[in-house]
Amino acid sequence: MIGCGCNVCTSSDPRNRRLRPSLWIRHAGSNILIDAATDFRLQALENGLAQVDSILFTHAHADHCLGLDDMRIVVDRQRRQVPVHASTKTLEVLRRMFGYMFSNPMWESDVPRLRAVPVDGRFELCGLWVEPVEVLHHKMTVLAYRFGPATPGDKPVIAAAYVTDVSEIPPASEERLRDLELLIISALRYKPHVKHFSLEQTLDFALRVGARRVLLTHMSHDLDYSRLLEELPERVEPAFDGMTVEL
User: Fold this and answer.
1) CATH fold of 121-238, please?
2) What is the Cα–Cα distance from 75 to 30, expressed in whole angstroms?
3) Is the pLDDT of residue 75 over 90?
4) Parallel, antiparallel, or unpaired for β 123-125 and 114-118?
5) What is the DSSP string of 163-185?
6) Least CB-packed of 68, 74, 95, 106 within 10 Å?
7) pTM (2 d.p.)
8) Which residues contact 229 (CB under 8 A, 6 or more apart)?
9) Position 201 confidence tier, pLDDT thresholds 50, 70, 90
């Protein structure tokens, strides 16, 4: 946090240095990005991300989408349109903020070309089933996403889910977040917050749905990595910038 001298902000532990969260999914030779966080450029450089085949947005708050402009060089190199999947409301905000990316009729090397794709139910993407799950960020609806390998038949195999900026998960959505190999979910701080799950709320939900592994993300400077690691129950751990998980 700017101007803060707390133990976490001045820590020498690199796991306490947290950029705004994005998620990079690699599957079957394709790259899917969830959210283009404000720090997307730094994250892409640090982790060697050079190709993006599709982008999923959870919502259009600044810390989750202001890095979208830095997609320009990625799209220019690929020389093809990149689909952006999000709710209709989120796409409306992104079009207002980044209209030049979605409306340019002719190819120009310095202007990305993105294609808006409204999310309406489960769909297949790069060999994965992707299912949007509505959660609440105070009064705002945010899309969580669950993923599973595309298989024959009507029912997907559930493998993982990503849930961020959440203060409430309706019962119907909770049912769609069960039977997971991996749950990545936000846990802002120890104290309650009107727009975000506290650590206690996150742990209560994660253990209730029975995820086999839980990673905590979107953590504030109230949470020290080493201390948190000692406090957490089995199967739950804090994530850190650059962390890689193989499923």
Assistant:
1) Metallo-beta-lactamase; Chain A (3.60.15)
2) 14
3) no
4) unpaired
5) E-S-SB--HHHHHTT-S-SEEEE
6) 106
7) 0.93
8) 237, 238
9) very high
